[in-house]
Known about the structure:
Elements: H1 16-30, E1 37-38, H2 50-62, H3 79-90, E2 102-105, H4 108-114, E3 125-129, H5 133-141, E4 157-161, E5 179-183, H6 195-208, E6 211-215, E7 241-246, E8 259-262, E9 268-270, E10 276-278, H7 279-290, H8 296-303, H9 308-334, E11 338-341, E12 347-351, H10 358-369, E13 371-372, E14 374-375, E15 386-390, H11 395-408
The chain binds pyridoxal-5'-phosphate.
The site of pyridoxal-5'-phosphate has 14 residues, from helix 4.
Amino acid sequence: MATVNDNYLKLKAGYLFPEIARRVNAFAQANPDAKIIRLGIGDVTEPLPEACRTAMIKAVEEMSDRSTFKGYGPEQGYAWLREKIAVQDFQARGAAIEADEIFISDGSKCDTGNILEIFGKNNVIAVTDPVYPVYVDTNVMAGNTGEANEKGEFEGLVYLPVTADNNFTAEIPSHKVDLIYLCFPNNPTGASATKKHLQAWVNYAKANGSIIFFDAAYEAYITDPTLPHSIYEIEGARDCAIEFRSFSKNAGFTGTRCALTVVPKNLTAKAADGSDVELWKLWNRRQSTKFNGVSYIVQRGVEAVYSEAGQVQIKALVSFYLENAKIIREQLTNAGLSVYGGVNAPYVWVKTPNGLSSWEFFDKLLQTVKVVGTPGSGFGAAGEGYFRISAFNSRENVEEAMKRITEELKV
Length: 411
Ligand SMILES: *Cc1c(COP(=O)(O)O)cnc(C)c1O
């Protein structure tokens, strides 16, 4: 008899976004004329930069001629792309990362999940709370946790609460953890990390032989020039960190798909016999066996991100969403709400007013002003009493949503 991976049965049936959809659909059915504005899901709305589109069209043309046609590419990505990334994203910032330490992939979501394959089963794993749910669910699927309690916390994971009380930066644990997920600028809180804070994590990881999984999906949104974009700007990070980056949020590739993972060559973890094993070799083996590369067309599109025109265009794209975030911050502050984030990130993290729970505030916003956001409690127990508003939308929708909130919801 065939059996299933029982770990999947421990998952909380992906309840956040389906539950949002259920409540929005019920409201829309009861109020067919209501113009609902969705500021919930974190997907981009603006078109791909022209430089990327032009490069992809040219790449499609190359596919039409036998002499320029491309079949399988390198599993790790084309060298011409990895070189540009190494120079422009890392070396230009003083981060000593080489092209062959960069693995091009079809998404950070997959990479942050797949990376667990090269790690052992007995690691103590820490996540922040609230957190990007992918980190938790992929650990559940991999069998790295026990069952969830009624708050949705999985046995065996270490949760590091991030709230207004600690300025949305997790305290360094007093005990030893082996794998730590950090995401800065943060989804969902919109918080960013200083060099000092990341240095403290790197020092902790080096002292404990831990590995940091650093998710920099939102690095392009950093506006404060003193903040680090990469963990490799921090001294010692090459010895303890893997970094994930994506073209989804800086260049609008959520539907086109392209990302990258950096595994420094000297980075090691222990084998069962106590010897040090290079993680680069394992990840290279994993990718070469289970992945066949990102399409040539898409990699040419991403290469154009690094052209002069591409840089101007992605900066304009990011500025557009950051201006939305600024409008959201200002208007919600005018409405009497306490808001966080939204300065170096496309997410504004709102404290719910009058002690409302995250879901109570969700219902209130939906029913009174027909605006949809994301309940903070859906990202973890410590997100209760908070609410995420995404800046990924048209200016018109953002302005209309904020107008409704300030006019009707002043607290
Ligand atoms: C959007 C996002 C990503 C990017 O995922 P892709 O699979 O590359 O689209 C990664 N991490 C976080 C926290 C995100 O919000």
